[in-house]
UniProtKB/TrEMBL annotation:
Residue ranges occupied by any YkoP-like domain in the UniProt entry: 4-183
Pfam families: YkoP (PF22790)
InterPro entries per the UniProt record, alphabetical: YkoP-like_dom
Protein name: YkoP-like domain-containing protein
Length: 194
């Protein structure tokens, strides 16, 4: 990605962040941004058998795409890009747990839920995965994430063509208890090392 495009994206990202009320977990040092919302959709059963129901309070999880793009600028290798993202997620989850644990309304929050195309390899991290309904909102989300892939991924255009206009858009989610028990600061994520 060239510097001018990255700069324009940075301006747009500030506007997007304010319009969506996203909160930084740790600006410039964490891959996640979040917003507290009521979950809307079918029941989600987490790995520890917690059920997130329609109307439950959740922490909606967003990967900070612009921040990730600045970190992977110049990275051409697809494997290095995937490993960088995985490392950033692993480093960010303990801070996310601390953030949630410090919230005044943490007792009402059922879990964390995100919508992403970057769902490969998240199951060992404790996330569950499910399909999303192709409503107008998720069609827009798919279009937006396809655009992000084309911009950020070194082979984005070719990858999109290989998917033949399909986007593996999924929900990824985790219960609050699982997040806090596994990723509270000071704990080493199970089966993971840096």
């Amino acid at each position: 990605m060239n510097t001018s495009l990255l700069m324009l994206w940075g301006y747009w990202d500030e506007i997007y962040q304010r319009c969506t009320r996203l909160t930084y977990i740790e600006k410039g040092n964490n891959i996640f941004r979040v917003v507290v919302l009521r979950y809307r959709g079918e029941p989600l059963v987490t790995t520890d058998h917690c059920i997130i129901h329609d109307g439950d309070l959740i922490l909606k999880l967003h990967i900070h795409n612009y921040y990730f793009a600045t970190l992977c600028k110049g990275v051409k290798d697809e494997l290095r890009l995937a490993l960088l993202l995985r490392r950033l997620i692993l480093q960010s989850l303990p801070k996310l747990a601390t953030f949630l644990d410090s919230m005044e309304n943490k007792d009402q929050i059922k879990g964390i839920v995100g919508t992403t195309m970057l769902h490969k390899g998240v199951t060992p991290l404790g996330f569950s995965i499910s399909d999303v309904p192709m409503t107008w909102f998720f069609r827009y989300k798919r279009w937006y994430l396809r655009l992000m892939l084309r911009i950020v991924h070194p082979n984005g255009k070719r990858r999109l063509q290989s998917w033949n206009h399909e986007m593996p858009l999924k929900r990824v989610y985790m219960s609050k208890e699982f997040l806090l028990n596994r990723y509270a600061e000071g704990k080493q994520p199970l089966g993971e090392s840096y």
